[in-house]
């Protein structure tokens, strides 16, 4: 399963929201093993009045002036997702501390904030949870005062492995003249990616890349594009994905006060020599 932080790409926004300054590195794919959450809930037996499940992690601190445990809730139908896990293994090994040892929640397709780490307890609720991490922290809103829309499933996104090598100061990528294979990954919350497009002229002309099928229903997909860098000069390489639901990466940023869900097309400056 691919898991991405909801704030991935925050540092690319202008003006930059104040929070963890992620560029494009807060995403990865791993194999998770654990106990089926729905099987456990069925064994326990939920009362018909239960509307949400509350998950509490062992991490405790202050955010937004509020002292709190890290807590997130899920609607019952999401908690009962057939592939939701209480995970205790990652890539065939016990969870490491930074990944939530000894137990974490895994909810396929959701941004990372929902996958509560260092899981300490679960509680059945008959009213929606109104804690900070649900109602304040992870929201799409134009200001921190607005409640906005809740962050849930990962938005469609593609990223390119920057080709060549970098110029130290500008970070422009240096590529030698000739054939160059551009490669990357594309993903979306619960929809497979149907198409990846690449532009080598800053979005004027788009060409279709080759894309591999998913290795699992929730994993990113590898894509590749053959670029003939036949002329020396500067280029602006872009990539964008379209998922099977028809959602497309935007050309411009979706700015929010907390920098959530930024999935605008990636732009890589290249100098061909």
Give your account of this protein's structure:
With 273 residues, this protein is mainly beta. It has two domains: 31-150, Sulfite Oxidase, Chain A, domain 2 (Alpha-Beta Complex), CATH 3.90.420; 157-272, Immunoglobulin-like, CATH 2.60.40. It contains three helices and 21 strands. The strands form six sheets. A six-stranded mixed β-sheet has the order 13-14-21-20-16-17, with no helix packed on it. It is globular and about 65 Å long. It starts with a strand and ends with a strand. The model has no long low-confidence stretch (mean pLDDT 96).
Mean pLDDT: 96
CATH H-level homologous superfamily name of the largest domain: Oxidoreductase, molybdopterin-binding domain
Radius of gyration: 20 Å
For the record, the count of structural domains works out to 2
Q: Treating each run of at least 4 consecutive H or I residues as one helix, how many helices?
A: 3
Q: Tell me the number of strands.
A: 21
- In CATH, the topology of the largest domain is named Sulfite Oxidase, Chain A, domain 2
Structural class: mainly beta
The ordered string of helix (H) and strand (E) elements is EEEHEEHEEEEHEEEEEEEEEEEE
- Kindly provide the name of the CATH class of the largest domain: Alpha Beta
CATH arch. level architecture of the largest domain: Alpha-Beta Complex
Largest beta-sheet details: 6 strands, mixed
Shape category = globular
Query: N-to-C terminal Cα separation, in Å?
Result: 39 Å
Query: β content, as a range?
Result: 35-45%
Identify the strand order in the major beta sheet: 13-14-21-20-16-17
Helix content: under 10%
Low-confidence segments: none
